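Write out the bound-state structure for adenosine-5'-diphosphate.
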Amino acid sequence: MEKQTEMIRVQNLKKSFGKVEVLKDVTLQVGKGEVVVLIGASGSGKSTLIRCINFLEIKDGGEIYIEGKSIDPKKDDLTKVRQKVGMVFQHFNLFPHKTVLENIMEAPLIAKKADKEATKQEALRLLQKVGLSEKADVYPASLSGGQKQRVAIARSLAMKPEIMLFDEPTSALDPELVGEVLETMKQLAQEGMTMIIVTHEMGFAKEVADWVAFMNQGKIIEMARPQEIFNNPKEERTREFLNRVL
Ligand code: ADP
Ligand code: MG
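---
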């Protein structure tokens, strides 16, 4: 098999908060265009792991390579790293006093000092991509939760990231709004975006993930093809978790 371009490599990652060791020894590799769905019980360290990959949390030990380069939070420009590694959270935090279009244009205009007209055209293209062209000039307050989350995804894409991290992007949504956000992520996956997605949507994991990683008490204890994880998990703890959630 041809060797894939490595986009993310996490090696022996450790992270504690005070005395609590939250990430014990996490190793994970993600190739270009791969979708990894990260599952596991609440408190197992999923958010901390992806926040470390985006350097919102700073690791205590181990290495994080982005596109083959080990990132040293003390020396490297983390703003640049975060442009490459976009992140979407459970709560969308759109700027309430800016229109949808202005929300999407904000970061590229500030961070990249980009041309305003070009940025606007790109923002409109992204809005079309997430199916919200008609909402360009409205304020976030008038959007549904699902629409807000799709704007948040477009806003993150405006920085032209190579990698997207999602932390339970549908957990705060009413059930009937979950599908449209999953559909947007599925479309991104089909376009070849490299993604790590924390979600409890097992149907989505089955359909879209290249790999499913099961996290338990600060470690990834099993990572396999979705079919393997869901039909034939190797670890007893994976089986127990899936029995509880499926
Ligand atoms: P998950 O996303 O899988 O639910 P988290 O990564 O959010 O897990 O949390 C893992 C553990 O780390 C939990 O016990 C949580 O209380 C703790 N934790 C997370 N963030 C912090 C923080 N900023 N300060 C102290 N403890 C934290
Ligand atoms: Mg979490």
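---
The beta strands are 6-17, 20-31, 35-40, 61-66, 69-70, 85-88, 163-167, 194-198, 211-216, 219-224.
The longest helix spans residues 175-190.
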